[in-house]
Design goal:
By secondary structure, this protein is of the alpha/beta class. It contains 10 helices and 10 strands. It has a single domain, classed as Rossmann fold, CATH 3.40.50.720.
């Protein structure tokens, strides 16, 4: 395919934030783009065909994939972007809440991927880009459950890539740092808060707001997704932004004691 006809892309969670900016970047790069949202939206937004899809529902996922196939006949690129955050101490979330976060961030990726893999296998061609995070590489105090979902996506994506590589399909990761998106829209709070964490949780929330405000523009993540989508011989991981690259380097090459000390300092936690 030529640069002006890259293929058919499906982007989950494309109603706002990173998903919307990524969908626009892919369209600009020559893809015909379908985006998904949980709630009804105008059929077309900035040239992106919008579909309703709840990634926690098998039937909804399959209906979205079938809709793309009925209109375009194929799917060349899947970008698994839909996700939610969770702020609070690990023990402040019930098992039900933890399962709900995993249902979106991990099993939502699995559902979308399982629905698209047979299509790509028939085509003998396809690329799946999974949005991870630098919190898939490091500990994340007061974001433990969210970080756990991203650690899971890291292991899942690497393993799946080895399984489907001989079928003409590649699975790659994009790891953003902190990105300027709507904090309130993307983060939920623990459902059983404990008084012992009140003060430090408030500090953690303030820190999160501060770093989000100073974070990378979502366009930086979108550019990384486009690179991951188009690379002839893709890398396993694409970091998005300077901070993400620094965190990856620190985690890989510096002593664990150094990482631990500096992580606590960054998170304003007492020794």
């Amino acid at each position: 395919m030529s640069k002006t006809e890259r293929g058919i892309a499906l982007v989950t969670g494309a109603s706002s934030g990173i998903g919307l900016v990524t969908a626009r970047a892919l369209r600009h790069d020559g893809y015909r783009v379908f985006g998904t949202s949980r709630k009804p939206m105008p059929d077309t937004q900035d040239g992106i065909t919008m579909l309703i899809c709840d990634v926690t529902d098998d039937a909804s996922v399959q209906a979205a994939v079938d809709a793309v196939l009925s209109r375009a006949g194929r799917i060349d690129l899947l970008v698994n972007n839909a996700g939610i955050g969770l702020l609070g101490g690990a023990e402040e979330s019930s098992a039900a809440q933890a399962k709900a976060v995993f249902d979106v961030n991990v099993f939502g990726v699995l559902r979308m991927t399982n629905a698209v893999l047979p299509v790509m296998r028939r085509q003998r061609r396809g690329r799946i880009v999974n949005l991870s995070s630098i919190l898939g590489l490091i500990p994340a105090p007061y974001n433990a459950l969210y970080a756990s979902t991203k650690h899971a996506i890291e292991g899942y994506s690497e393993s799946l890539d080895h399984e489907v590589r001989t079928q003409g399909i590649r699975v790659v990761l994009v790891e953003p740092g902190v990105t300027r998106t709507s904090f309130e829209e993307n983060v939920i709070r623990a459902d059983r808060p404990l008084a012992v964490y009140d003060a430090v949780r408030a500090d953690a929330e303030k820190l999160m707001r501060d770093i989000v405000e100073k974070g990378d523009a979502p366009e930086i993540v979108a550019r990384a997704v486009v690179r991951a989508a188009n690379a002839a011989s893709p890398k396993r991981r694409y970091t998005a932004g300077k901070a993400a690259g620094q965190v990856r380097f620190i985690r890989r090459f510096l002593p664990e004691s150094f990482v631990d000390k500096n992580l606590r300092k960054f998170n304003r936690l007492a020794d």
